[in-house]
């Protein structure tokens, strides 16, 4: 990329993703891109493939570059697209994608624009083997070499980034994701009759929906249904588990939902059973609708969201009895629901102010 005078603002932002199949990282990135465009910034999105239901959420005005290949490795082309489009700043939308940020920095060298990356998943991974955990820690500690700044969504996640990445504190900021808003025109999700538990998230091993399905026969209310909203590679295994447990009449898995907020609002309780998370947006979305939550201790951020027993319950990841007890507690007829928790701040403005500072200081 040819050397050019650095701007003093991030007027052109480039981001990237594999596809639009429905992950929380990609959905949040699209919400942010829409906000940046609304503030008059130019946004380029490099996509492996626009395949997936989130394609309906692509904001008007975004410059889309498709690589026609959803494989992670296809994003090695990001460096070439940066050369071609000359953005002022690169936004890495989650730590799943930080390997592409490292490769882009390596290929472009001193011609690389500043890179800001969001921490989207836990940096402490207790489920990993000793060897895998050691390799993960070593990888995290390379991040200060190729990232100019890191954004964490809560103070505890920022502290984790400083500790695990060895990122200097002055290069770490706390900015929440923009809140989810109702999506007019989204196809409605068919809700179970009567009371139901809801889980929202990809059907992938990380989410451990098998824990929630296994708890269903053990709870006191044998009529309550389970609605699992999401899609992914674990669907067949989960469907087999449902069949083995004879729960076909109580468990519904309708796939991706364009707008999960109505299902969250109508549920008796929302549950997240993951091994690890970053800052799980679904907990905030449920609480914004006045629906109590149950979550495993999957992130340091969980207790920053579930700040008191009136909002929900936090249980150990591997404690099946604690999960059943929490479900029985929140499914007790007449149990009071929390008051809706509203988000504060202006994440779009906070991001743009950060981007401008980073670009001006580059």
Describe the structure in your own words:
- This protein is α/β, with parallel strands linked by helices and 362 residues long.
- The chain contains 13 helices and 13 strands.
- It is globular, with a radius of gyration of 21 Å.
- The model has no long low-confidence stretch (mean pLDDT 94).
- The longest helix has 15 residues, at 24-38.
- Strand 11 (269-272), helix 10 (281-288) and strand 12 (293-296) form a beta-alpha-beta unit.
- It has helices at residues 24-38, 78-85, 98-108, 130-140, 143-146, 155-165, 209-215, 235-244, 261-266, 281-288, 302-305, 320-331, 347-361; strands spanning 12-17, 42-47, 63-66, 89-92, 115-118, 149-152, 172-174, 196-200, 225-229, 251-255, 269-272, 293-296, 312-315.
- The strands form two sheets. It has a seven-stranded parallel β-sheet, sandwiched between helices. Strands 10-9-8-11-12-13 form a six-stranded parallel β-sheet, sandwiched between helices.
Q: What is this entry, summarized?
A:
This protein is an alpha/beta fold. It contains 13 helices and 13 strands. The strands form two sheets. The protein has a seven-stranded parallel β-sheet, with helices on both faces.
């Amino acid at each position: 990329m040819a050397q050019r005078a650095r701007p003093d603002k991030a007027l052109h932002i480039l981001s990237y993703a594999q596809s639009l199949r429905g992950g929380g990282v990609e959905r949040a990135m699209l919400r942010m891109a829409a906000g940046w465009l609304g503030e008059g910034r130019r946004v380029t999105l490099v996509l492996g493939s626009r395949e997936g239901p989130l394609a309906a959420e692509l904001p008007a005005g975004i410059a889309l570059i498709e690589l026609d290949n959803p494989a992670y490795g296809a994003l090695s082309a990001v460096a070439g697209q940066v050369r071609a489009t000359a953005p002022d700043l690169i936004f890495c939308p989650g730590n799943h994608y930080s390997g592409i940020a490292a490769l882009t920095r390596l290929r472009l060298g001193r011609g690389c624009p500043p890179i800001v990356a969001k921490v989207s998943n836990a940096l402490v991974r207790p489920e990993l083997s000793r060897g895998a955990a050691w390799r993960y820690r070593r990888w995290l500690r390379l991040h200060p070499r190729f990232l100019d700044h890191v954004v964490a969504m809560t103070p505890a996640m920022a502290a984790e980034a400083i500790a695990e990445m060895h990122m200097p504190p002055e290069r770490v900021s706390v900015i929440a994701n923009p809140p989810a808003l109702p999506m007019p025109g989204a196809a409605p999700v068919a809700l179970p009759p009567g009371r139901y538990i809801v889980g929202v998230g990809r059907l992938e091993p990380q989410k451990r929906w098998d824990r929630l399905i296994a708890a269903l026969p053990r709870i006191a209310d044998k009529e309550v249904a389970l609605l699992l909203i999401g899609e992914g590679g674990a669907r067949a295994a989960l469907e087999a588990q449902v069949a083995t447990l004879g729960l076909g009449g109580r468990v519904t898995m309708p796939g991706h939902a364009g707008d999960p907020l109505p299902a969250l609002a109508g549920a008796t309780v929302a549950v997240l059973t993951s091994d690890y998370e970053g800052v799980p947006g679904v907990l905030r979305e449920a609480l914004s609708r006045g629906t109590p939550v149950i979550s495993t201790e999957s992130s340091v951020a969980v207790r920053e969201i579930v700040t008191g027993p009136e909002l929900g319950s936090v249980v150990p990841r591997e404690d099946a009895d604690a999960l059943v007890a929490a479900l029985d507690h929140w499914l007790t007829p007449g149990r009071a629901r929390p008051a809706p928790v509203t988000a504060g701040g202006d994440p779009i403005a906070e991001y743009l102010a950060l981007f401008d500072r980073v670009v001006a200081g580059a």
